[in-house]
Structures are given as C-alpha cells and as structure tokens.
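Onboarding guide, step 5: your first structure request.
Type a short instruction followed by the sequence, for example:

Predict the 3D structure of this protein.
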Amino acid sequence: MALDLKTPWTTADVSALLASVADDRSWRLEVSSEGIARLNDLTVVPTADYEDGLHCFFEIWDEGTDFVGPGAASDTALCRKLERLLRENYPVLQGARTLSAI
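The system replies with structure tokens like these:
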C-alpha cells in the first residue's frame, strides 16, 4: 500500500498503511521525491543511490518493535505522530532527511 501525500489523506490512511504489513521483518517508512509514502521491506539494504532519490525516510523499525502491523495501526498516538511528521516534512523538509517516530 502507498499513500499519496499530494492528495487529501488522514490519520486513518496512516493507520491503514501501517496495517498493510506484518511486524515480521525490519521496515522503514519512506517518502519518494514524488510524495508517495510507503513501507520499504529492509530485508535487502537500500543502496546509496536509492536513498539519494528519496525525499525523506524514518529510522529503521526493527522486527518485533510494533511500529507496523495491527498493533501499530491501532495505536492512535503513533498514527497521529506519524501524520504530523509527514505533514510537517512534505513537501518541504523541516530538517534532516531522516525522521524519528519516537
């Protein structure tokens, strides 16, 4: 699942994005330069060229930390915080390209 940050979206959409994957591996929430937010499976480590093409990304969420999956999707505070950070940093970054969810 992907979330287009250039169209209207809500906290419920962030929740659906988090619910779209299982907490069975390491993930990272990334935003492309085109404004598409998606979860990237970090089973394969991204190259520097790939990362250079991103607008921003969150720190790595290791397997079992409950930042993705049903638990994360039902955590209203987490979903609101992610929504706020995404809105604050797209289309214009407010600081570093690496964002923190906690």
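Each response can be followed by summary notes, for example: Residues 76-89 form the longest helix (14 residues).
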